[in-house]
Design goal:
- By secondary structure, the protein is α+β, with helices and mostly antiparallel strands.
- It is 20% helix and 24% strand.
- The strands form two sheets. A two-stranded antiparallel sheet has the order 1-4. Strands 2-3 form a two-stranded antiparallel ribbon.
- The protein starts with 10 loop residues before the first strand and ends in a 10-residue tail after the last strand.
């Protein structure tokens, strides 16, 4: 076994601006139907409310028989971790 020196480097986690913006969506557990993609520029709070509104409409209007009442919600946030100093070559380089 080879011993390697280790050191701790502070890391900064932030939004990855090179990726699509955050997105909140809901899906019906019964049928799999999903809420629409969030509107462009919509903040997370508004996306959250829009997904909840969709769930209520899906249950009350689209499936008034009351059998579509369970949903999953997903929030996709894309982050990038950046060291505050040089940490050397990339793994596999």
């Amino acid at each position: 076994m080879t011993r390697s020196p280790r050191r701790y480097v502070e890391m900064v986690i932030d939004t990855d601006e090179s990726r699509p913006p955050p997105a909140v969506r809901a899906a019906c557990v019964t049928c799999g139907e999903r809420s629409p993609e969030p509107e462009e520029g919509q903040d997370l709070e508004r996306q959250y409310v829009a997904a909840q509104d969709w769930c209520a409409r899906h249950t009350g209007r689209d499936h008034a028989d009351g059998r579509h009442t369970r949903f999953t919600a997903t929030a996709v946030l894309r982050w990038v971790v950046t060291p505050t100093e040089d940490i050397g070559p990339r793994a596999g380089s």
